[in-house]
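G., the chain you wanted modeled:
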Amino acid sequence: MWKKSKRLLLLFLLSVVLFGCSNNESSNNDQGSETDSESNGESEVLDIAVFEGAYGSDYWTAVADKFMEDNPEIQINIESNPKIGDLIRPKIVAGNPPDLIYLNAADPSGVTQGLIDEKGIEEITDLFDREVPGEDVTIKEKLIDGALKSKFMAPYGDGKVYLAPYNYNLMGLWYNKKLFENEGLSIPETWDEFFSYTDVGEENDRALFTYQGIHPGYLEEIIVPAIYDRGGQKSLDQFLNYDPEFWKTDVALDVLSIFEQISSTENGLMEGTIALNHTQSQTSFMQGDAMFIPNGNWFETEMEDAPTEDPFEFGFMGVPSFESGNTLTAQTSIEQIYIPKNSDNKELAKDFLAYLYTDESIILNGEKAHGAMAVNGAVELVEDYITTSSYNAYKQAEEGEIYPVSSSFAALPSGSNININDEVYKPAVEVLSGDSTAQEWADKLYEIYLQIQEDMED
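Predicted structure as tokens:
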């Protein structure tokens, strides 16, 4: 009797594994998969781990359902959670990772960055030479310019791609579009023009600029594009790769001096900014207390219930240039998907990845996640599912009015206790409050970068 019960228990447990019956997993199209298993003996199983953040997980369920509908011999199991990195770490350590992972390198769990550092991600350069399933175009041709060259996708600087682009965001400056229309104003294309809007602000009872106060990391959205505009990719690479000599250049000082000038300009910084959190400063901007604020294209959705001045409409612009005639720049970040090197189903994972770039998948992503994939023409496909301000921001990038600048700091040496974002951006608070200078900020960062270089040599 015990042997029979034990055999039945083992059969039950096997069915749990095959069909992904878990409280933490979404097993899609189970009935169809069971029928297919009965007729063919077994299904090929793809296990996917998904970070459940602002984009949710509904898209992944929907696209997996569609993929299985087209490929009934395949079963996809999805595990999604806001703390997915912590949940999958034991599996990765045990050598049994998911077959495909959506989790950014900046995730606090450190899982993705750890896999990058340990060369634990499968190279997928060849994937992008494939044609998009059912379409007469390669994946590479369909992606936005520069997507595969960024450190988000090619982290080792050797031209080989290890992570696949998913949704992307644009970060720049925001203004009240209605105010600009009513006053007959055009967006400032240079920093000189930007500072001339102090007079416009005074006439309309508002400061020139505010930012997210106790979160000075938002100033990255000005600093990164400004470095690229002033010094090109060479200067940006110095900045991102911890070259101490960058902080001795005119490029660095010119960029940091933007904030010194805001501080020294009467009515330049909105009163009280430094003590506010992000929602408080953003609400103040929307109520007409400042002309400009940095943020990403999630701004409208994030603040959809906040009060505004009347009339008000979100307007997005690139970061002003140091020279007239230059294309305005904006920072971009791209979400990442990848295949662990120890995956059991690499080819199937690649097939599914390729499927994500179909128009049908892109539309599903817009409908379910309200995001735009890093694909040319995606914004038109998802226009009905994203905010007007996001659509306008993406269109500026697609039409060449804004040049998207990708950035990601190089990995710090193992064991480093330096928080590079805090070290780079927090000193802006002292400069904006008038307690420090751009030169002192640069001098401090020169010493920080020297320390990083010494740590790298140890």
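The two ends are 64 Å apart (CA to CA).

Shout if anything looks off.
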